[in-house]
Amino acid sequence: MSISKTDSFSAAGLRKGRANQKQRTRRTLLETAAALIAKGERPTVTEVADAAGISRRTAYRYFPTQVKLMTEAALEGLRPSMESAINDAPPGTTSGAIETRVDALVEQMQRLALANEALLRTMIHETVLHAPSDTQPRGSRRVEWIEAAIQPLRARLGPAAYARLVSGLSLVVGIEALLVLRDIRGLSGTQAIQVSHWMARALLKQSLADRQAEQRRARSKRRGSSES
């Protein structure tokens, strides 16, 4: 049985809607936990679920332990400084403007990772102990910030190349990249940030070069068709 294009679009829309709902639920739990922590409390997952008006079963799917919830809530407090760094970077779709935005993303994210290294190591420990379920992935903040930085490239690169660049950048920023560079390569914090900058710029330049090559091939094909 064949599946119509309309059905495919409907299914894709449904998946996107569910993903957005999971993200909203996760954000609500984190914001509620952060608010309780700000009052001097150390809430359990159950207490946060009750305060947020979300079922306890759902809350435990996202945060199976109090430590994981508390760690994530603390890290959510880094959001304003990250968003400010990206928003303060120059707008525009030129290669120079995008590179400046990516530089701002890498610099702020890796400096925050260094400043909160112990907390982030705890988060990874909890993630390893409690494998991700079908809920919103742990790295959702990172993807949001990457997409905010390179959003002007979405139309220019096209959906597939844009998604590939987001995936690539996800590997070179954040605590995992920092741990590899520091624990395995033995780099200092400053050296690790420099390597992250280098990798991010390389990915950006390659993505733009690939797009330009595709456009040249398309123009060449059109010329060949018109001459035949």
Walk me through what this model shows:
It is a single chain. The protein starts with a helix and ends with a helix. The chain has helices spanning about 5-40, 45-50, 55-60, 65-75, 80-90, 95-115, 115-130, 140-150, 155, 160-170, 175-185, 190-225. Helices cover about 80% and strands about 0% of the residues. The longest helix has about 40 residues, at about 190-225. It is mostly helical. The protein contains twelve helices and no strands. The protein folds into two domains: about 1-65, no CATH class; about 80-225.
Gap between N and C termini? 40 Å
Helix content: over 70%
Strand content: under 5%
Task: Kindly report the average pLDDT value.
Answer: 86
Low-confidence stretches: none
Sheet with the most strands, sense and barrel status: none
Order of helices and strands: HHHHHHHHHHHH
What Rg, in angstroms, do the CA atoms define? 21 Å
Structural class based on helices, strands and sheet pairing: mainly alpha
Write down how many β-strands occur, each being a DSSP E stretch of 2 or more residues. Answer: 0
Helical stretch tally? 12
Judging from the principal axes of the Cα atoms, what is the shape? globular
Count of domain modules: 2
Characteristics of this structure?
12 helices, 228 residues, 80% helix, 2 domains, single chain, mainly alpha
